[in-house]
Specification:
Blueprint lengths: L1 H14 L10 H11 L3 H8 L3 H27 L4 E9 L2 E2 L2 E6 L5 H23 L12 H6 L3 H5 L2 E4 L5 E4 L5 E3 L3 E4 L13 E8 L2 E10 L2 H17 L4 H7 L3 H4 E6 L2 E2 L5 E6 L3 E6 L9 E2 L8 E6 L15 E6 L7 H4 L1 E3 L3 E13 L8 E2 L17 H17 L23 H13 L5 H4 L2 E2 L1 E13 L6 H11 L13 E20 L3 H16 L3 H39 L26 H4 L30 H8 L1
Parallel strand pairs: 7-9, 18-22, 19-20
Antiparallel strand pairs: 1-22, 2-14, 3-13, 3-16, 4-5, 4-8, 5-6, 8-9, 10-11, 10-15, 12-13, 15-22, 16-17, 18-21
Helix pairs in contact: 2-3, 2-17, 3-4, 4-16, 5-8, 12-13
Organism: Centropus unirufus
Catalytic activity: Na(+)(in) = Na(+)(out)
Family: Belongs to the amiloride-sensitive sodium channel (TC 1.A.6) family. SCNN1G subfamily.
């Protein structure tokens, strides 16, 4: 009975037209889908009469599908977009840290013993090239005078005079002309003629390990050439002086600060924290937060900010190292390192400088919205400054690390990495050439630091507005200078000059804190809602329709393809077995296709709906019913009545 049932089911399956997911071909599957789907356009393609109308519905449906795909792609591409919001709040604001440095890093009177040889050679160079001398007539020195004194400085970096940008140079020490080779780098963009000729001045740096590898650095201004040459040797000397000695040679808080007021109250050097800057000597930070307390202000205006009078002492400036007079200041966060050499603001002497501030906090979204870093922990560069991460800290630390790896020593202007030491001639005779070549790669972004370092996601910014007024005024100059001289009389033995003083005021212009933040434009809920809106607008489709499309176009279509492939494979295998056994194929066993193929037949019995569509077939043999006489239909009368006969005749 079981075998007969299976044979009957197989025969019924072969006789029924197969539709739906069990359709034998892709065309039948697509036709079934179009007739049964909830998306209206697909159904109209099948039921429409006439080729033109059917073609029109095909074009409309394909256009709607294209629009859906385009709009959904735009939604996905814009998913990681951010909107910017600006919030303004009025409240008590924390006062920033204010770092103040004298432009002259060290007292020249204290540094003369260390710089005497360098200053002497610099004066000789000025005398030879410009005829400059102190207390003597301006007569150029001869070459014999240069040869009489051997200079270590000019042996390391000889100053050269270039003739009309050619490679013919004159050595200022020997006076001899010669041809030189090497890459030429012009450090100035504008041409400034010096003296009574069209010559320019510069110097040559060569690789100590390969004398044929040289670089020529030329300057259109002799002032810039002398200063650059002086700074190179100056850094070499300062790198060999201990930090404790350099702090003693620079300005103390008592030297720099004359008066101090904050928020209408008097302050003094106890409110300032000293730190030593390699290029600016001792600098002093007001409200550094080192003791755990950060001052705040509750009122805007110049009367409620920081007011200091600085003693600049112009007479003790290094004449070759700095050419301007005054101080440098920087407003920054307590956790931020003050790169005063890069973004410091200069204030001049004999003037009152007012700096008004606007405070802004900014926060950007990190990945995947932008390429910024929250804390810098994901940046493979060691922070050498022990301050919160910033792009400048990363760039300077990256360059210093490359300097140590390439040149074997650290550049003087930046902090020391662990286990490294600053460059000097005695231990690193090749450091200047190496430094200039490395800096050239850094500027051209070939060192990789600009690619590694990223902006910080959160940062604070104080927008500064600077105004300057003459100070002290002509009518108050006499008494103010006398009083200030008396206040400082215990430390200096001279009357102050207004060119030695600078008045500084730093204050909030208002107490409005501006907070700029980025917020995600899209969320997952909004994205799904937008998808649903596009599907409903163009195809009258829902999520269930999408699932149906996935099932039909991917799962069922793949099933049909795999079924056909399995059919071919099985046929090939059967033919191979027959060939091996030598048995010829039977004539009554034709190739079966589609729903006639047994591979396509499963063991499921036909349903009621499919049974209604069974074709008319010959009746199957069955057991006849019992021959009971009671089941026959017989009339109740054996004869027809006479009256009914008459009716029949009528």
């Amino acid at each position: 009975p079981a075998a007969g049932k299976a044979r009957i089911a197989a025969r019924l399956k072969r006789s029924l037209p197969v539709r739906g997911p069990q359709a034998p071909t892709l065309s039948e599957l697509m036709r079934w889908y179009c007739l049964n789907t909830n998306t209206h356009g697909c159904r109209r393609i099948v039921v429409s009469r006439g080729r033109l109308r059917r073609l029109l519905w095909i074009l409309l449906t394909l256009s709607a599908v294209g629009l859906i795909l385009w709009q959904c792609a735009e939604l996905l591409l814009n998913y990681y977009s951010a909107s910017v919001s600006v919030t303004v709040r009025f409240q008590n604001l924390p006062f920033p840290a204010v770092t103040i440095c004298n432009i002259n890093p060290y007292k020249y009177s204290s540094m003369k013993d260390y710089l005497s040889e360098l200053d002497k050679e610099t004066k000789k160079a000025l005398e030879t090239f410009y005829g400059f001398s102190e207390g003597k007539s301006k007569v150029r020195r001869s070459a014999d005078e240069w040869n009489s004194t051997e200079s270590d400085f000019f042996q390391q970096i000889p100053l050269l005079k270039f003739e009309d940008f050619s490679r013919t140079v004159t050595d200022l020490r020997s006076g001899q002309k010669r041809k030189i080779e090497g890459s030429v780098f012009h450090k100035d963009s504008s041409i400034v003629n010096s003296g009574d000729s069209n010559d320019i001045i510069g110097f040559q740096l060569c690789d100590a390990n390969n004398s044929s590898e040289c670089a020529l650095y030329t300057f259109s201004s002799g002032v810039n050439a002398i200063q650059e040459w002086y700074k190179l040797h100056y850094m070499n000397i300062m790198a060999q002086i201990p930090l404790e000695t350099k702090e003693r040679l620079s300005y103390s808080a008592d030297d720099l600060l004359l008066t101090c007021f904050f928020d209408g109250l008097s302050c003094d050097k106890r409110h300032f924290t000293r730190f030593h800057h390699p290029l600016h000597g001792n600098c002093y930070t007001f409200n550094s937060g080192k003791n755990g307390t950060i001052l705040s202000t509750s009122t805007g205006g110049s009367e409620y900010g920081l007011q200091v009078v600085l003693y600049i002492d112009e007479a003790d400036y290094n004449p070759f190292l700095v050419t301007s007079t005054g101080a440098k200041i920087m407003v920054h966060d307590q956790n931020e390192y003050p790169f005063i050499e890069d973004i410091g603001t200069e204030i001049e002497t004999a003037a009152a400088t007012s700096i008004g501030m606007h405070f802004t906090r900014s926060h950007k979204l990190s990945k995947p919205y932008s390429d910024c870093t929250e804390t810098g922990a994901d940046i493979p560069v060691e922070n050498l400054y022990n301050k919160s991460y910033s792009l400048q800290i990363c760039l300077h630390s990256c360059f210093q690390k490359a300097m140590v790896d390439s040149c074997g020593c650290a550049q003087y202007a930046q902090p020391l990495p662990a286990g490294a030491e600053y460059c000097n001639y005695k231990k690193n005779p090749n450091w200047m050439y190496c430094y200039y070549k490395l800096h050239e790669k850094f500027v051209k972004e070939q060192l990789g630091c600009q690619q590694i370092c990223k902006d910080a996601c959160s940062f604070k910014e104080w927008a500064l507005t600077t105004s300057i007024a003459q100070w002290p005024s002509a009518v108050s100059e006499d008494w103010m200078l006398r009083v200030l001289s008396w206040d400082k009389g215990q430390k200096i033995n001279k009357k102050l000059n207004k060119t030695d003083l600078a008045n500084l005021m730093v204050f909030y212009k208002d107490l409005n804190e501006r907070f700029i933040s980025e917020n995600p434009t899209n969320t997952l809920v909004i994205l799904l809602s937008n998808f649903g809106g596009q599907l409903g607008l163009w195809m009258s489709c829902s999520v269930v329709c999408v699932i149906e499309i996935v099932e039909v176009f991917f799962i069922d279509s793949l099933s049909i393809v795999m079924r056909r492939q399995w059919q071919r494979t099985k046929k090939w295998w059967n033919n191979r077995k027959k060939d091996q056994s030598g048995k010829l194929p039977q004539a009554g066993d034709p190739e079966r296709q589609g729903h006639d193929n047994p591979v396509c037949v499963d063991e499921d019995l036909p349903t009621f709906n499919t049974a209604l569509r069974l074709p008319q077939a010959s009746p199957l043999p069955r057991t006849p019913p019992p021959n009971y006489s009671t089941l026959r239909l017989e009339t109740a009368f054996t004869e027809q009545l006479p009256d009914t006969l008459e009716l029949g005749q009528r």
